[in-house]
Amino acid sequence: MTVRTAEICMAILLALCSIALMFKSAELKIGWVPERGPGSGAWPFWLSAGMLLTCLATIYRWFKGVTPESKNLEPFMTKDTILVVGVSAGSILFLLAATHFVGIYIALFFFLLFYLRFIGHHSWLLTIVMVIVVPIIVFCLFEWALKIPLPKAITEEWFYPIYDLMYSY
Amino acid sequence: MEEILIHLGGGLAQAMEPLNFTMIILGCMLGLLIGAMPGLGSVNGVAILLPITFLVPPTAAIIFLAAIYYGAMYGGAISSITLGIPGASTAVATVFDGRPLAQAGHADRALTAAAVASFIGGTISVVLFTLFAPPLAAFALRFGPAEEFALMLLAFATFIGLGGDDIPKTVFSILIGLVLATVGLDIISGQPRLIFGDIDGFLHGINFLVLAIGIYGIGEMLWTLETTQGKVTVHKVKMSVSQMKRNLGDVKQYIGTTSLGSVLGYFVGTLPAAGATPASLMSYGLAKTFSKDPESFGKGNIAGVAAPEAANNAASTGSMLPMITLGIPGSPTTAILLGGMIIWGLRPGPLLFTENPEFVWGLIGSLYIANLATVIINIAFIPLFVKVLTCPFTILAPIIYILCVVGGYAPTQTMHDVWLMLLFGIVGYLLRKLNYPVAPAVLAIVLGPLAERSLRQSLLSSQGELSIFVTRPISATCIVIALALVFYPVYKKFSNKRAADMPAASG
Known about the structure:
The complex is a heterodimer.
Chain A: H1 3-25, E1 32-33, E2 37-38, H2 42-64, H3 79-119, H4 124-145, H5 160-167
Antiparallel strand pairs in A: 1-2
Helix pairs in contact in A: 1-2, 3-4
Chain B: H1 2-15, H2 18-36, H3 42-49, H4 58-82, H5 92-103, H6 107-140, H7 145-162, H8 167-182, E1 184-185, E2 192-193, H9 208-227, H10 241-249, H11 251-269, H12 276-290, H13 302-318, H14 320-326, H15 332-343, H16 351-355, H17 357-388, H18 393-409, H19 415-433, H20 439-461, H21 468-471, H22 473-506
Antiparallel strand pairs in B: 1-2
């Protein structure tokens, strides 16, 4: 896909999103409500209408060839870019999905293992140190210091002894 | 004046309290590191680290974040000079002369000049800030909802008039930020709004941090991965005490233009769309114009390193002026700080000076100390920072991703928001590739709820008459300037076209 194609696809997609947002806003009152001022949907409705107009402007400018992107026939994403960006985005996707099933700590372990060893090609020593130390720091910083319990899914039970230790003081 | 000095004294004393002082030093160190890393700037550091600051009281938290902001402005120069790639967009102009100096083996001179110039810029701007902030806040106390709304329109208009990006795309970015801010329960009627697919996660709204971390954490890292695929070479830096003395002696060569650039940077920084990057470029231009030897610029003139560095530091302080006094952020970084203030339970705007004086003056006092601390840390640890730059990206990237994920989870503690953050990160990255500016969206999601409330309050008090915005003098002035900013690019385009058509018509 060239940058030129990407520009028009994105503009059309965003225009459709704007229309959807207008319909969604119109489920609430978008006119004047006596005594209460503009209805709840008015502000998002007119903002979405504005979004639609800007998308139409971009589409018009694309046809006229005004924007630099509309004249750019280079590929939108080169193969190398797709690989490097895709692997990163994919590994975060995996991290989040795994968190739902095995909890954040196990997910972090595998995420770091994959990233450091298989993308970074770092030594096993560094990888092992990192996969152990980073989750511990995350735990101390967020759960212990900030008192924000992170999602643990099935590993919740493993932490009971640690909670006992943390809160017994 | 006396009153300001008394408050300032109190603020300085507060900034010297053990916790706050530790925060300053920690913030400056982290800021320097973040600024020095290619691809990461103050806005990324502040967005990613904001969730961690809930550990400490609000004053210490903002002092920490402001110190990061400050440190990052210094740090940007380090990679501009030693790697030849700007550590942050704000240090782009520093590459022009910093790189040739490093190639000629004078990296130490350039780094010292950058640090000293940053200090000059920081000092001038902090003094200006102290003088301007209280009267501006006192003036802003008279603002009603109509003025607030007009002021926000003005802030958004600066993006259109001065941002320099594609106009329809800029407007789109502003509007989508405002729409995202409306998701959740309506502030006035309490009705649920824009709950896509009846997913419960949308009921509590979209936290600005979800968008900010998505765009400036994940999106930025993807962007950096794409742009720095090639290898980078670090220039060696050697420093000794005698060299340091000589380097500090260079100050005479650039003190004049640097001071001028600092004042310019401060005022450019107060404008929401402008900020540190254009300020540093303008300051560079200024230094070149006033130089006796403009030819040497771009080939390794020390004043060419000093001028932009002074301006970007001055601009970072400048952008805090509207944030503290008006509740309108002057840059994406201050937009995130403003959002943080709302989370901490503070109401940004002119009332801060009367309701939370210890917060405001503590922050101002900390700026003075951060400025001094950063220049010392910077000069003392330059070799260390250069070493950090050689840390492979494949170690840094996963750590930043983890901070993003956990930081995105922390404010609302739902996985829903983390997924949303990833989505915003990827979409933000794609939009950025297509030249959609993303900063206006972050500003808009922070200002969105305030803008809607002031609009609806104004309309309610005027019974739906839009004329309320033009009959009140302050609001009318803001609207006129906003309109002028919006139509300025259109006018410029037409006049350019006419100028281009003229010769053709006559010939």
